Amino acid sequence: MNNIVQNILVFSAVALALVFLVKKFLIKKPKSKKACGNDDNCGCH
After folding, report:
1. Do 42 and 34 touch, CB atoms closer than 8 A?
2. pLDDT at position 26
3. Which positions ≥6 away from 36 have C-beta within 8 Å?
4. Which keywords fit this entry according to its UniProt record (predicted)?
5. Over the stretch 18-36, which tens digit does the pLDDT of each residue have?
6. Which of 7, 23, 40, 44 could connect to 36 by a Cys-Cys bridge, CB 3.0–4.6 Å?
7. CA 32 – CA 45 distance, rounded (Å)
8. Rounded to whole angstroms, what are the CA distances from 31 to 8, 34, 35, 38, 43?
9. How high does pLDDT run on average in the chain?
10. Whether 45 contacts 37, CB under 8 Å
11. Do residues 44 and 36 touch, judged by C-beta distance below 8 A?
């Protein structure tokens, strides 16, 4: 019984890590259209 619970926890941790990595590196967010550096003091520097 303990082995089954341990396997479930390990597989769920691996699945969460894979979801995080896919979201972080493979799914790109659309870039904003606002250009930075046009003396509009956008706060990115």
Report:
1. yes
2. 87
3. 42, 44, 45
4. Membrane, Transmembrane, Transmembrane helix
5. 999 999 998 877 766 666 6
6. 44
7. 16
8. 38, 9, 10, 17, 16
9. 82
10. yes
11. yes
